[in-house]
């Protein structure tokens, strides 16, 4: 049972940072925390059913308003979902970098940050992931399907390109860096790349993915880092040339 | 102060419940505060990377990331910002950072908690000099998780002299626009911090990141 209005801010964090910027912890946050802990404790995975609202109300001993707010906080981030209809109710969702990206853009937008800032960040994260991927023992297997990119399929299917980069992020091994990189790359691809005509780039992009897949499969870390850096600098250069104003646009919150 | 609820209801043409939920979602990120009582209402807050860190740590937790991975990410990202700061920083601001470092070093020398207290301010100042607010925000979010969760169990106070010297040398390299040196020194400094954590907390750092 969680007492209404519980706050752990004062006691726990005071010593580290005298001016604590973090907002006050509300009951709904504490309930959300408890739901997350219980998902782990009960070994629930994506798609599993959570206890019903009625039983959670009893278990956590909070008001319906606080519980629903907790649900909503987790639902916005995609960690729980609601199955509609009879027999429906809260189920376990999944971790999607695009949801973290979306929340981050709220900060980026209010902070007056631009797509140019996002580009420079991607130029650091992506080559790092390529380098780290070279140390992963699964790299041959995971890169295999990208080794024989068929240039005739040309128009470098965007979904396929995204899949290639997803694999590299996951191969990087460090899940913090992988999530951050995926979030940045997702934002650039939906907000910038999806609005650009990439026809001129697509053939070379496909070939670059093939080369990258090869050097990563071979574990050539320095070369993978160099090629990945070149790969994104080429895309950014293309965008800079065609749509220079886009770089100074504020990152949108969607 | 944002417009009062009644004005927003009219402006956005939504139900009261939807508006309150929208405000609450933004409040959950610490970007607005809902002032209670008469004359209260939504107030625009500051943008604190610590709040993004709190949300991000939920993702880290669900994706199975460990504290060791968080530290590794920090050891990688912080030196990027030191390098950018040396490349781009305004010379006057960089010199101010050096002066601040020297003053702080004198002030906290011998105060066992002093270095730890000053560290977040130093790193934040470097981030501000970097000219890349996106990378700065993302790094500061990780730093906040590190401070809130790892520094609770690890005591760095016995290394304070070394850390203060490191900070001063990094600030000097930034002021001299020596990007390579700034990055090298920042990397060594962060690896040093990481080594202290590994030494003290060891296997505890292989646990999954908590959300709190």
In the CATH hierarchy, what is the architecture of the largest domain in chain B at level 2? Up-down Bundle
Q: What is the chain-wise order of helices and strands of chain A? A: HHHHEEHHHHHHH
Radius of gyration of chain A: 22 Å
User: Reading side by side through the largest sheet of chain A, how are the strands ordered?
Assistant: 1-2
| SSE pattern of chain B, N- to C-terminal | HHEEHHHHHHH
- In the CATH hierarchy, the third-tier topology of the largest domain in chain B is known as Four Helix Bundle (Hemerythrin (Met), subunit A)
Note the topology.
The complex is a heterodimer of chains A (254) and B (212).
Chain A: H1 9-13, H2 27-41, H3 53-60, H4 64-76, E1 80-83, E2 89-92, H5 97-110, H6 115-133, H7 139-143, H8 158-171, H9 175-191, H10 199-217, H11 221-242
Antiparallel strand pairs in A: 1-2
Helix pairs in contact in A: 2-4, 5-9, 6-8, 6-9, 6-11, 8-9, 10-11
Chain B: H1 5-12, H2 16-28, E1 32-35, E2 41-44, H3 49-62, H4 67-88, H5 91-108, H6 114-130, H7 133-150, H8 160-175, H9 179-201
Antiparallel strand pairs in B: 1-2
């Amino acid at each position: 049972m969680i007492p209404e209005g519980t706050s752990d801010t004062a006691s726990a964090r005071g010593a580290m940072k005298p001016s604590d910027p973090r907002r006050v912890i509300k009951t709904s946050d504490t309930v959300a925390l408890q739901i997350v802990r219980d998902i782990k404790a009960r070994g629930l995975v994506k798609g599993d059913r959570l206890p019903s609202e009625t039983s959670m109300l009893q278990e956590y001993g909070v008001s319906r308003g606080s519980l629903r707010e907790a649900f909503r906080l987790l639902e916005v981030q995609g960690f729980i979902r609601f199955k509609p209809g009879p027999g429906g109710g809260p189920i376990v969702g999944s971790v999607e970098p695009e949801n973290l990206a979306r929340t981050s853009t709220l900060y980026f937008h209010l902070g007056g940050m631009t797509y140019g800032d996002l580009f420079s960040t991607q130029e650091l994260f992506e080559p790092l992931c390529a380098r780290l991927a070279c140390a992963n023992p699964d790299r041959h297997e995971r890169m295999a399907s990208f080794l024989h990119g068929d240039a005739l399929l040309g128009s470098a299917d965007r979904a396929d390109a995204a899949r290639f980069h997803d694999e590299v992020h996951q191969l990087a091994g460090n899940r913090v860096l992988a999530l951050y990189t995926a979030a940045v790359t997702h934002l650039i691809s939906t907000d910038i790349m999806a609005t650009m005509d990439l026809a001129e780039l697509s053939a070379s992009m496909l070939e670059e993915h093939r080369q990258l897949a090869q050097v990563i499969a071979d574990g050539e870390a320095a070369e993978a880092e160099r090629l990945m850096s070149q790969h994104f600098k080429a895309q950014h250069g293309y965008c800079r040339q065609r749509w220079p104003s886009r770089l100074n646009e504020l990152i949108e919150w969607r | 102060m944002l417009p009062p609820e009644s004005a927003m209801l009219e402006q956005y043409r939504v139900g009261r419940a939807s508006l309150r939920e929208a405000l609450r979602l933004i409040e959950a990120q610490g970007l607005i505060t809902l002032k209670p009582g008469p004359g209260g209402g939504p107030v625009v807050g500051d943008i604190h990377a610590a709040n993004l860190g709190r949300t991000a740590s939920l993702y880290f937790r669900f994706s199975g990331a460990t504290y060791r991975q968080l530290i590794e990410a920090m050891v990688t990202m912080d030196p990027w910002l030191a390098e950018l700061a040396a490349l781009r920083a305004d010379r006057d601001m960089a010199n101010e950072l050096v002066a601040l470092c020297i003053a702080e070093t004198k002030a906290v020398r011998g105060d066992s908690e002093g270095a730890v207290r000053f560290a977040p301010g130093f790193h934040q100042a470097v981030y501000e000099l970097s000219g890349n607010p996106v990378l700065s925000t993302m790094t500061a979010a990780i730093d906040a998780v590190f401070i809130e969760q790892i520094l609770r169990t690890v005591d760095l106070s016995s290394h304070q002299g070394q850390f203060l010297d490191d900070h001063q040398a990094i600030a000097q390299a930034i002021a001299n626009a020596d990007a390579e040196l700034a990055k090298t020194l920042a990397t060594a400094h962060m690896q040093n911090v990481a080594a202290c954590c590994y030494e003290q907390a060891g296997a505890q750092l292989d646990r999954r990141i908590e959300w709190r």
